[in-house]
Amino acid sequence: MASPQYTAEQPQYHTEQPAMQPIQEKNYPQQGLPEQPMAQQPVPANNFASATPLVSLQQGPAPVDCPVCRVRQMTRVEFVSGGTTHLIAILCCLGLCCGCVPYLTTWFKDVEHKCGNCGALLAVWHRSGRVEVIAHATT
């Protein structure tokens, strides 16, 4: 005996697509606006994307917006003797008789930040971690 074979009928779908027609270019009337060249952004003289706030300055140089000359420039740093330097010198003098060591190294000195463009004193970073802002915006 032969077993009957069952065949599943596949549904037939219509897959006819309309013929694609080429797109024709149409000439639309101008709106009457004169052609203007694209406005170009001024290119900064430096490549600093953001500036560091003066109150956030640390030991090293950082890009700042100078409130005096209004230019974004990297600060110049200069190590100067401050209160911490003098205190360490006194302690070294009393204990080891070498009070000149703190004045010869930058480890115990404060850092003055000056504008890289105009040279104005902007802020002083003290060894204690406090930042003293010197330059204020001029009107």
TrEMBL record:
One GO cellular component, as annotated: membrane
One Pfam family per UniProt: zf-LITAF-like
Annotated segments matching region Disordered: 1-45
Keyword line: Membrane, Metal-binding, Zinc
InterPro entries, alphabetized: LITAF (IPR006629), LITAF_fam (IPR037519)
Biased composition range(s): Polar residues: 1-15
Topology of the protein relative to the lipid bilayer: Peripheral membrane protein
Compartments, record wording: Membrane
LITAF domain boundaries: 46-127
Superkingdom, natural source: Eukaryota
Gene Ontology MF term list: zinc ion binding
Similarity field: Belongs to the CDIP1/LITAF family.
Name of the protein: LITAF domain-containing protein
Naturally occurring in which organism (per UniProt): Hyaloscypha bicolor E
